[in-house]
Design brief:
Oligomer: single chain
Order of helices and strands: EEEHEHEE
Distance between the termini: 16 Å
Number of domains: 1
CATH superfamily: RutC-like
Structural class: alpha+beta
Mean pLDDT: 97
Low-confidence stretches: none
CATH architecture: 2-Layer Sandwich
Helix content: 10-25%
């Protein structure tokens, strides 16, 4: 088991790693729309937040020697399912077909009172 960390994504704020690589898979912890330098939410705009989350996931995937195109499963937590269509649009911009398996759920609150958090399981070639 190898721990994957990069300064190109927000540092872990608790007792977890950005990602763990094991058995040909990269398991990325939930990413929120924090700027990796300031460690603050980048914007109140849902699209900006979704884009930042995908940028953080991409940075960690690349640090682990893979890409979001190898994603097998995403779990998406949304503060409001009303931004679901925007999530789909932004996901299609950063991940090519065939798309990974995915679940999206509405939750009452997320760390930093953000609008979206996503974790991922990605194959490593």
């Amino acid at each position: 088991m190898d721990i994957v960390n990069t300064e190109s994504a927000p540092k872990a704020l608790g007792t977890y790693s950005q990602a763990v690589q094991h058995g040909g898979f990269l398991f990325i912890s939930g990413q929120v729309p924090f700027d990796p330098v300031t460690m603050k939410v980048i914007s109140d705009d849902p699209v900006d937040q979704i884009r930042q989350v995908f940028a953080n996931l991409k940075a960690i995937a690349e640090a682990g020697g893979t890409s979001l195109d190898n994603a097998i499963k995403l779990t998406v937590y949304l503060k409001d399912l009303g931004i679901f269509a925007r999530l789909n649009e932004e996901m299609a911009r950063v991940i090519s077909e065939p798309y990974p398996a995915r679940v999206a759920v509405e939750v009452s609150r997320l760390p930093g009172d953000v609008l979206v958090e996503i974790d991922a399981i990605i194959a490593v070639d």
